[in-house]
Amino acid sequence: MGVSNDIASETGKLENVWVNTRRFVSWILLVSAVGGGLAACSSGTSTTTSTPSSPTAASPSATSTGSSSTGAESAITTNWEAFFNPQTPVAKRVSLLQDGQAMSSVISAQAGSGLASQATAKVTKVTVTSPTQAKVTYTILVAGTPALKNQSGVAVNQGGTWKVGLASFCGLLALENSGSTSGLPAACNSAAA
User: Fold this and answer.
1) Structural domain containing residue 68
2) Long-range CB contacts (within 8 A, 24+) of 23-26
3) In the chain, N or C terminus with fewer CB closer than 10 Å?
4) Domain tally, the chain
């Protein structure tokens, strides 16, 4: 009977580790707001525009359309890293997400979390695929340590500003919700279309 108890005890420990790991990874994905394999989901054809509600914390390239590929890559990198920077005000983060006003309550909730204050992103590659869309490769860092390496995301040019794509953000919310899209904000319905 001792062996059965030991196996049951170890199984319970493994289940706890798995649950905690899954919770941690899901949280990191949610904080990162853009995840691997979701770039193909972005339509880039949204008709809604959001106006930045805070002119502060914006670099000159933050609102640049990037007339050249290099200019666009620079703007995308700047805006992407600002979106994931815990020091960036919530209003600015909202302005850096495609149709961000529709997701402002989710972004605000993330900003109040302890782990979010330690998570940042480092862009490693940007590939502009059209005047309104780009692929982004990045790493999520937690307290300066890489947690998710070589993640793929999409950036969209909306209203002259390169932003994190809503479809990517909503895909992460679905992952956090055990793969289900039920209960996600209404804006995610249009992002998946």
Assistant:
1) 2-192
2) 25/148, 26/175, 26/176
3) N
4) 1
